[in-house]
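Action item from last meeting closed. Structure (54 res):
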């Protein structure tokens, strides 16, 4: 979590990720790439279930 906070502060501290397993690093990178490639609104609509209107 401290690494994510440093990203939001726009001053990433790469030293915080040095002891993290490769699987977690990969998951973090894939998540950031997914959000960068697909805007948040389209991502929400793509995975949200259709709710019929009453």
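Sequence:
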């Amino acid at each position: 979590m401290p690494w994510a906070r440093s990203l939001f502060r726009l001053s990433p501290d790469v030293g915080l990720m040095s002891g993290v397993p490769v699987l977690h690093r990969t998951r973090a990178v894939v998540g950031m790439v997914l959000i960068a490639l697909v805007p948040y609104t389209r991502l929400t609509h793509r995975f949200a279930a259709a709710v019929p209107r009453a």
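Note appended to the action item: Residues 12 and 19 are 15 Å apart (CA to CA).
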